[in-house]
Amino acid sequence: MLCRIVDMKNKEVINIKDGSRIGCVNDVELDILYAKLVAIVIQGKLKFFGLFGRGDDIIIDWKDIRVIGDDTILVNYNPIFKKRKKTNFFKNIFKN
Fold this sequence. Notes:
Blueprint: H1 5-8, E1 12-15, E2 21-31, E3 36-42, E4 58-61, E5 65-68, E6 72-75, H2 89-93
Parallel strand pairs: 1-6
Antiparallel strand pairs: 1-2, 2-3, 3-4, 5-6
């Protein structure tokens, strides 16, 4: 199957681990020395309706791409979550 980079840009990316929609391909990374596709880049999600910018871009390596279809790309992606420190709201208010 042949695919142009322009066609890749509009494809939706789905994680096969949980069925979640990751986003649409925004860019691709190419290794020009070996002439091969290295990764796809998905633009970060908007923060507070775009007023606070965007989150970090998601980069999915070629080895994690399972199927490239006409409209979608299925990937095996493990997101890295940053743990928030839990705070007790009321304890912080009344703290001396």
